[in-house]
Amino acid sequence: MSKAEEKALEAYPSTSHYWNAEPDRNAEAREFYKQGYRQAEKDLELTWEDIKHIYLLVISVSDIQGWMGTDKSIYQEVLKRFKESKKNKP
Description:
The protein is mainly α. The protein has 2 domains: 3-44, no CATH class; 48-87. 68% of the residues lie in helices and 0% in strands. The protein has 4 helices and no strands. The radius of gyration is 21 Å and the shape is rod-shaped. The two termini are 35 Å apart. The model has no long low-confidence stretch (mean pLDDT 86).
């Protein structure tokens, strides 16, 4: 079972049982939930362009702040800038 299916079943449990001949009232809602979940996964998926952009941000920020491989602030700044660029992307 995929993660989308697991979450859909959790949110909209099956209402049908082997002793009950009634159709599952949540089946349609589960399908819409799964479609939305899968679309969200696609929307959040990183592309090679995103990785390139992150790489260039690391170089830029580390040049400004001075390179310190374990310096958390560099990566926090890169993350902030990356999120801002995704938000401003048309």
